[in-house]
Amino acid sequence: MDGFLVINKPKGWTSADVVNKIKRILKVKKAGHLGTLDPDATGVLPVALGKATKVIPYINEGDKGYMVVMKLGESTDTLDASGKVIEKREIPPLDEEKIKRVFKEFTGKISQIPPAYSAVKVSGVRAYELARRGEAVKLKPREIIIKDINLIKKEMPYITFDVLCSKGTYIRTLCQDIGERLGTAAHMFSLVRTHSGRFRMDDSVNIDDIEKGDLSRIISIDKALEFMPRITIIPEAAEKIKNGMPAAAGWIKDAPARFSSNEKVRIYSDDMLLAIGTARYDSSHTGSLMAKEEVIKIERVMM
After folding, report:
1. pTM of the model
2. Residues 245-280: tens digit of each pLDDT
3. Does residue 38 carry a catalytic annotation?
4. Rg, C-alpha atoms of the chain
5. What are 265's strand-pairing partners?
6. Pick the catalytic residue: 2, 38, 80, 177?
């Protein structure tokens, strides 16, 4: 059983809980998730099954979409609703235009410090483990990209908005920082991930449905990797690719009209996915290649 299931993660479950449950239900040995969701968060959690675990590093870079409810006037130690309230502040008068202006200030490349209660490692130890022991946690800021923030609803002290952001963004920190810019305290009250890369809520299935045997929404590895150029080799070279040998120009039977050097590509023999590789040449140079010239470095054999 190879492919991806997009699980609509229930509240209260860790991402690891979901993977372990799926492994037990489907009796698969290998499974893994893409992009951790906090226990209190819900929504899109892609789970790779079988050979699909091999391609996780290649499809885990997509943008993330979230529906967020932020509560103003209170900050918590975990920056979300599960934490202890550590500060209360008055909420200044806020109209929608003011909120939208602040949202705009947070779009683009910004610097963000991960929460103390996070899985970021400090000297080999998870930050949340240090925080739970009462130890001071100092984390370095990281650059992230907020592509878009849209106000959906304002019902004080709650503000609902959606956000499109890069991998590695902490929405809890974003809520805290926006609250500060609005002149008050804030924390993330609830979070729903609406999409993760190419995986959407429309693709999702509940764990209960999986328990009932509904596997109709498994996404194939081919489908998940459609964003990569597809290169077909001659059948005689298939075994060499399986052994990890770089692909020579003379092995290529069919290639897309346009792709770039250093771009990740899918390598097929007929309709069988053999490997993931990195192109060592630009498609515009195809005509000048020598038959024995190594043109694709093999990174991950799929067979």
Report:
1. 0.86
2. 998 888 888 887 677 888 899 999 988 999 999 988
3. yes
4. 23
5. 277
6. 38
